Amino acid sequence: HPFMPLMCFTLMFCVVSVTYVPPHHSTIRPGFPVPVNTNNPGVRKAARFGVYRYNNSSNDLFLFKESQIKKAMVQIVRGLKYMLHVEIKRTVCEKRDHPSLDSCHFQREKNLQQMLRCYFEVWIQPWTHTVHIPVAHCQ
């Protein structure tokens, strides 16, 4: 599979897609979602924003954190709109402590472990430094 060109909007928001593109049609038009690598830094950052949104709306005592990004798409629409399928798991960090999620480990106690499958839509506009999360469904 040939690489598509690297698209950079700012130094922080570069999108690489490794999807196959038939010859003669290798331009990405705005508004057309494309698959993107789940290890992409922009994807990981978007997934974390989705997790923040989930944690803010849940009434769980503990914070959840992304454990695996299963699938990612990105769409160029007045910024970058990420469509993510993410598994999140309960951590040992309690919400009231507000620690950094990076330092939160997943629950080891069997009766406290929980995994949810989530679909997040995260719309990032780098030039205004705004993030909108119109969709955050977890079950």
Automatic annotation (TrEMBL):
Q: Where is the signal peptide?
A: 1-19
A Pfam family of this chain: Cystatin
GO MF terms listed in the record are: cysteine-type endopeptidase inhibitor activity
Q: What is this protein called?
A: Egg-white cystatin
Q: Where is the Cystatin domain?
A: 28-139
Q: Could you mention a single GO BP entry for this protein? A: positive regulation of myelination
Q: Which SUPFAM superfamilies match?
A: Cystatin/monellin
Keyword annotations: Disulfide bond, Signal
An example Gene Ontology cellular component term from the record?
A: lysosome
Q: What superkingdom does the record give? A: Eukaryota
Q: Which family does it belong to?
A: Belongs to the cystatin family.
What InterPro entries does the annotation carry?
Answer: Cystatin-F, Cystatin_dom, Cystatin_sf
